[in-house]
Here is the input.
Amino acid sequence: MLPSSEHRPGWRVGADIGGTFTDVIALGPAGEVVPMKVLSTPPDYGTGVVTATTAVLDAAAVPPAAVTAMLHGTTVATNAILEMAGARTAVVTTQGFRDVLELGRLRRPVLYDLSWTKPVPLAPRRHRHELAQRITADGRLAPATVEDDVRALAARLRADGIEAVAVCLLNSYVRPDEERRVADLLRAELPGVYVTASVDISPQPQEFERTSTATVNAYVGPAVHGYLTHLEAGLRTVGVDAPLLVMQSSGGLLDAGSVASRPVQIIESGPAAGVTAVRRLARLLDLPSVVAFDMGGTTAKASLIEHGEPFVSADYEVGGGMNVARGLGSGAGYPVRTPSIDIAEVGSGGGSVITVDEAGALHVGPASAGSRPGPACYGQGGELPTLTDANVTLGYLSPDALAGGRVAIHADLAAKALSPVAERLGRDVPATARGAYEVAVSSMTTAVKAVTSERGRDPREATMVAFGGAGPLYAAALARELGISTVLVPAHPGLFSSLGLLVADTELNEVAPCRPDPAAEFERLTGRVIAELGEHAVVERMLDMRYRGQRFELRIRLDEGPLTDELLATARARFHEEHERTYGRAGDDSLVEVVNLRVRGTLPSSVSLEDVLRLPPAPGKARAMRECRFAETVATPVIARSDVGAGPIDGPLVVEDMDATTLVPPGARVHRDRFHTLVITWSAE
Here is the structure.
């Protein structure tokens, strides 16, 4: 069962790692909020978390022992895949299925690019091995696995220096005990090697997706296990003994021990935390449709939340340059079948590098300067021009310092880095910087459309919530491009993902293929969730449904109560409605089939977002004026959030917080609501 101290009164600390900054918020038992923002420390990101945690506790003047919950969002699993820096991985499968990973599916992310090639399998062919065994579709062994064959294979894996093994037997989801037997034999023969059984990660049909999910889990397993072990040890060294809970891709927290056994669940750990905070804000303000827009140092991300719930995908892909869960971009990465908030991502962030191609076109990203050396204006040796350098040159960012004075800014270095790009374009530096800003806005519309238009939703019907270190700088321009009339910039925008960790529920997901007795299967899955989370867990049941002949499913919530014909009829009606909304058509009941059964258990967080946001913003510095470049250069007031009142103020305007800067362009106006959220609306076409 999960540790109960997460819900004890005391200080809670949320730490989120980004490509440029590590963001930490400490929340006290009386509602005290202490924010902290420090540069990330790649490749040892855990050191930055420990350093930032120590700094925030010092700022709060509380001892480390006062922390009762340590909550964390991390990119370690994603980075291992994107950088191809995971473990030396082997796959063990049924005879005849050695090449499943290579065969894959026919999907291509680009139809007419003849130079495109499939991603290299995470386990090369020489490390994919077959066993002379077979599980039939009805669960019979024909034949069973011979233990001596497994021991002989283990010796070969040991000689090859294998660090992780994924066991993926054909049809193992109908006979999981056989696959677990093989995995246990390998663990006994290969102490210290990370062994994954596919049925413990994704016990579902379709051997390619199940094999890919297990392989990804094995590939990142040693890195995640080592990172979490090192982080827990580092926190204990400075006196923080609280349980470590990690954000999952689905938007819920889980204890570090469970995450280490199924690290594929935290691929989208960091982005999910921000969406979780926006979800709470949408419920608080009763907003029916919200686009969560998160722009940090490396990427910009978008997600759609309807009626207080984000879209959660059962299938997505990692690698291939970015993580995708939809549309024509699929086929570029490695399929993963675990619940994940549907987040579209593009390589445009504050640290994204500005370049000019051979045809003279301006580009932003996907390469990033990260935190080291970082943008040129940081004065840490970076020489490549980035969006942050452009924002400084345009006058949008402080020419002196960011992150509450922790990061010094050198405007002259920003202009110097942009000069070669300006020369190639034949323009002056401010015009080049503005061009890069507009290119970034255009790129980010792709992410928003992926979660709205591609789902049959009109972005103009949504409200945008902008956060992240750079999100509030671009949100108004992005919203205007998409026809979105209102943008909300909540308090602590640059640390909003960390705030999401504080208000997130603890969550556990279980899945099983639909069997002849679904009621008994639901009871079994529910029992596993209750055993892990405790009897106070809130349990939800869901069905993965589709029409016969379809390849993909829609997830449909099931009402409480016995699994009667009436209950299933209600679920089918919801499925028809959702299919009509998503794809523009619906069938009849005779075509509906249930593929998987799902159970989600949650322990609600003890923290209310409303209480945190009601705290008044910190007083800002004296008002100032800066020259800001829009279509033309304009003298622009620079104020603090506390200077924005309930009455609207016309742009242009720059609002500076400790952790982010909000840009209100000409033609827009802003006011502050009762939760100290900046509300930006357009006053002119």
Notes: The radius of gyration is 25 Å. The first helix runs from residue 45 to 60. Residues 4-80+227-265 form a domain with the Nucleotidyltransferase; domain 5 fold (CATH 3.30.420.40).
